[in-house]
Amino acid sequence: MIKKIIRRIKRQPLPCIAVCLLAAVLSVSLCHLQHSLEEERLSFEQTCNSIPVHFKITELDGSKFEGKNGIAKWAINEFLLNDGDFNKLSRELFVRVDYKGVIPEEDKEAVPTTPFSGITSIGAAEELSPSRGSRVRWYEGYDESIFATKELVCLVPEDFKGGDEIEVTFTGKAKLDFVIDGNKTEMNRSYAQHTAKFTVVGRYTDEGNETVYCPYKTMVSLLDMIEIAKETCVSYLGGTLTNSLDVGKLREARAKWFAEPNPTGEQTPWEGEEAYSKYYLYALDIEDSLLRTLESNMKNSIFLNKFASVIVFILSAGAGFLTGFLIIRSRKREITLMRTVGESNREVYFNFALEQMACAIVGIAFGGAYNLWDPIGQLLIFAVVYYVGLSVALAIFLSKNLLATIKEDE
Amino acid sequence: MKNLRHLFRQPLKTVTGIILVTLAVSILCVSVGQAFAVRMTQQKMNHEFTTVAMLTNTYTVPEDVLSWLNKTAEEHPDVIKMISEQGFLSSYIPGMKTLNYSDPEDGVFYDTGISGPTTVRPWPHGRPYCCAMFVITIDSVGGAVEKSRTYTTSEDLTPEDFATYEEYRKWYDENHKTSKLTYAYTVEIVGTINEVISLEEGFEDPIGRTIKLTFSSPTPRNEDMTAISKLKKGEQYIVYGMDYRDKDWQLRSQLKTGESECTVERYGLITHVTAEIDKFDLSKIHIMTDADKVEYEKKYLASGEVYLVNDKVVLPYARIDMDDGAKVYLSQSQYKAINTATLTLGNPISQVNYEFIRDREGGPVKEVRYITEYTYFDGEDYVACTADEYTEIYKIPTFALLEGSVEEFLNSSAGAEWKEVLERDKINNNCFLTIGVDHLGYLIDFVRGDSVITSGRSFTSAELEDGSRVCIMHEALAAENGLEVGDKVTMNFYHNDNVIPYDKKSSGWGDYLTPNAGFYYKTTPFTETEEYTIVGLWRGELLWPDVSENEYSFSPNTIFIPKGSSETELDRNESILYMTPVVHNGKLEEFRRLAEEDGFNDRFHYFDRGYSLIMKNFFNYENMAVQVLAIGCTIYAVIILMFLMLYPGSYSKSVRTMESLGVSYPKRVCFIITASMSIITLSTVFGSLLGTLLWRFAVSALKTSAGAVTELFIEPGTLGAIVIAQFLFVLLLDVLVSLYVATPKKMSARR
Questions:
Q1: CA of B749 to nearest chain A CA: how many angstroms apart?
Q2: Which of A168, A322, B118, B536 has its Cβ near the most Cβ atoms within 10 Å?
């Protein structure tokens, strides 16, 4: 059988080579198309992932969180605890805790209160960002990573006069003790206090800003010592997604705990967590407008590319069908001759079908090797469609009356 | 025609050929379509991503920086895309309310006079114009009080400049010289408000309030001062001013928020707390007697609250007995604010304008120069004028005797000016700052993400280029006015008059930062009226940003439009808000290098909205699309080659027959070309149509599901060019094949 096929091919090498080439080229093209689509998809994901998606707690109308009464403990836990919904999605979390400390002046006369902020990184203190015109000058051996530690270090304004070692006293809220003595009521106040020595490790320039920045964990410990709940002092809570394409999951997590910012700042009913409050207490703003723009444009384009690929495949398959049809038509004389010398329709059909399919399969085999025959489905479909094409042509010719065919040919 | 007959002899073959080439052309069109889509996406990305430089530590654009930018833009156009210069106008939108920093519905009305903790930020241009027109009865008229200031005409040294304090004192007594400058004369008129003709929404009803009117003049004797001296107690006057303050309401707000301190006695204990008072009941307010003060002092010291001035307890002036038994203690100034309001009677030149001439900053005053030259705005330009002319142009009504009813007065010739003021006040409450932009992404606040588009979209490149009448407004402003994306607003533009004495300015920053709509006045008539469609809503980090924290911020009463959409020339000033150096995407490092070479790197901070992060991956994405195009073209070429083999190539037998019958070579070639090109021509038309239809179907489907813009359609011109190019290509190949097939060959035995 194989020898017969080879013999037949040797008789008409040109059409067979053409079929082989056609099949090979189309196979290479289809494989490359599939490969390109896959790479396009990866490229799209990588491009989208390059855009960081930040999120942060805001007021209900989307404006910057004022933090007058801090943030509820459950919200902080969702960010900071390992199994928190937002912790699981984030590669970096920004938390800020503010409190006032007292730093005595050198001459001990003026005792001003200085705003202190404990931050997890500079991302939690937007005013320090270079985009605000601020500049940070770190002392040798120190950098932003100090905010991830629990050390007694701090970053101060450039014109800070306290030197590089500063002693700070934090005072907690007043505790009132009432002493009833007969008809008199006396009220005594007492305060929890703690003094800490900070080492200055850097200075920043930001006009009008007098805040001293220390690590978040350090500030939390100090607040513990003066019996202040850290939740009441948290003024910023935010993060950056690990995978920007997880925005959908972030939105789901948001729906569970926070409202979406709305322009009127209206309270939104909080179904599901009514134990905390009937209405969402805070909003969470997801800064993904750039990602959405990029994503929608690229997705549109990828959709059209996929569509184009499908069309190209369908059209190519159609072309394969027609090519098979036409090739058989071009060998009409040969088919007529074979029928004249007594070969049955079945034999003629099988001879031609095997010959053409052998060429096509060889072409597909060589062409498909480019991408390791992936997608095998599309390659097989192409082969099948080609086979159907030539089968239809053969069926038409073989169904015709032999004499009529001979007359046509003459 | 004869040559075409044989096509009809083999109709099946002909139709098959047409379908084959149609498929090939369709493949080509669709492949080009997807490459075109990627190209459009790339252009859109280039439009969305902007790379800009932000000037740091300045509110105006320094001359040296501007010169350097212009020079560098000229020398390196491949690095600097443009120096974007935004401009602004003011626009009156009938029926559209402005947002007010003060929220009258919540009962909180902030005022520039408050200087409290950070819970209250002074934002004078967020509050409405506090214009008020009342009918009052005069209670008393004060005399003219001289307003003066002293200035140093000698060196102004401090004790730190001397070795000992005694030496400083000696120098001070011998050398320190000051002079007095009288710059104004004020008269205070106290009255009672009888009727409200016009007052901003949200203020409490002031009828019955005591109003303190202040009139200022540069001289003690001019027409108005003379008229004021003739005011009589008991007479009724109509008055107008632009800075109405409800001191009673202000006091209650401050007591509620704790910005104004008071002490509250409850259960025998005195503490500093806030006090919520809905309305002062005068019957429950008592002036503290000496005995009251002694008892207070005892209680106060026993409470442990430390609030001493010169080691003495600060004693209150008045006490309010609350319904719940608590007692609220107020100072004298707080007491005086109860049931009072204030209003300044306007005067374009209310004081002598002067400037001190010194040798150096902080040095002694060498000369006092009086400003006598003024300018007024004539609608297009600033024109020099005298003080009298300036007064005449910008004067507003202040007070007038009311002898009949208000309606009679307003309809009289004397009241015409007052009526005009009322109309103008209505307009000014519906005016918005309108900024014309080259691109929203050139505004620093947007490019660094502090301001974002929250619904709708930003301006497209087509809208910016064509100057389409579209706008983007603050989401809270839109919500306040029941507007959404897609709605239309009618804008009446007018210029800002920078010399008008009645404008809202942000404290300390003038017109440069957090600007506001200009004051609509007779010097600033409307220049054009156009309808704009809202295409997007924006939101800033704060509804009312703190300019000390964000100098690039805008108030929510700001509307953005494409620069070319208004025919009126935009106003500009040296503010950093309106000038942005724009760098070509991907050229940030080069710009940085150029800035560093010339010593300007420290003056800028840079933003590229993440372009540098996506650049590499995005280029890969584009490469893939080019490969897909190449594949489409390859498949097209292969199919065409198959066609050429099966059609022109299959005529060899017929051509041999023609040759043997003596048909000439050109005729034989013509025969083959005519036959095959008929098929190709028909197929090209069908294929183009099919390809275009398929592409449009895909884009429409995308638009329905994802709201894609129609920019992804292939332009007819581009498609036409592609179709013609491929037709010519196939024609060329066909001719070559035909020439080959028609070429006489050696006779050989028929197979």
A1: 15
A2: A322
Domain membership of residue A320 (yes or no) is yes
pLDDT in tens, B591-633: 999 999 999 888 888 888 777 777 776 666 677 777 778 888 8
Rounded-to-integer distance, Cα B89 and Cα B565, Å? 12
pLDDT value at B104 more than 60: no
pLDDT of residue B564: 92
As a whole number of angstroms, the distance between CA A47 and CA A34 comes to 20
Q: Is the dihedral of CA B477, B478, B479, B483 positive or negative?
A: positive
- What tens digit of pLDDT does each residue of B189-245 get? 999 999 999 987 777 889 999 999 999 888 887 778 888 888 889 999 999 998 888
Q: Do the chains contact at A312 and B27, CB–CB below 8 Å?
A: yes
The domain total for chain A is 2
- Residue that has been written with the tokens 């902007």 in this structure: B50
Where does A51-155 have alpha helices with state H?
73-80, 85-89
User: Do you find a cis peptide bond into A375, omega within 30 degrees of 0?
Assistant: yes
Averaged over B629-650, what is the pLDDT? 80
A131–B54: do the CB atoms touch at under 8 Å? yes
* Structure tokens belonging to residue B669: 């070639």
Q: How many angstroms separate the CA atoms of B739 and B669, rounded?
A: 6
Determine the distance in angstroms separating the CA of B473 from the nearest CA of chain A, rounded to an integer.
Answer: 12
Q: Which DSSP string do the residues of B561-608 spell out, in sequence order?
A: EEGGG-SSPPB--SBGGGEEEEE-TT-HHHHHHHHHHTT-GGGEEEE-
Q: In the block, which residue shows the tokens 């007995």?
A: B321
ipTM associated with this complex: 0.72
CA atoms within 13 A on the CB side of B378: 8
Q: In this complex, do A47 and B618 lie within 8 Å of one another by their Cβ atoms?
A: yes
Chain-chain contact of A43 with B30 (C-beta, under 8 angstroms): no
Quote the CA–CA distance of B118 and A98 in Å, as a whole number: 14
Per-residue model confidence as pLDDT tens digits over B559-586: 999 999 999 999 988 888 889 999 998 8
Same-domain status, A195 and A146: yes
Q: Which residue has the tokens 């998606």?
A: A53
A305 and A374 assigned to the same domain: yes
Q: How far apart are CA A307 and CA A301, in angstroms?
A: 10
Size of interface A-B (CB pairs under 8 A): 212
Task: Domain of residue A398: give its range.
Answer: 2-44+296-409
Do A129 and A109 have their domain in common? yes
Q: Do B37 and A189 touch (CB under 8 A)?
A: no
Residue of B nearest to A389 (CA): B16
A152 and A63 within one domain: yes
Distance CA A147, CA A121 (A): 5
Residues A275 and A306 in one domain: no
- Shortest CA distance to B239 belongs to which of B347, B400, B349? B400
A130 CA to chain B: closest CA distance, Å?
7
CB B653 within 8 A of CB B742: no
* Residue where one domain finishes, among candidates A244, A262, A287: A287
Query: Looking at B33-42, B85-94, B399-408, which range is the least confident one?
Result: B33-42
Position A181 in a domain: yes
First to last CA, chain B: 32
Cβ pair A131:B607 closer than 8 A? yes
Residues of A in contact with B541 (CB under 8 A): 63-64
How far, in Å, CA of B377 to CA of B383, rounded? 6
Instruction: Give the pLDDT score at B383.
Output: 93
Place of tokens 């198309």: A33
pTM here is 0.79
**Among the listed residues A317, A327, A308, A328, the one whose alpha carbon sits nearest the alpha carbon of residue A26:** A317
Kindly state the average pLDDT of the residues B169-173: 87
Out of A287, A307, A333, a domain closes at A287
pLDDT one-digit tens code per residue, B715-732: 667 777 878 888 888 888
Q: What are phi and psi of B369, to 5 degrees?
A: -105, 125
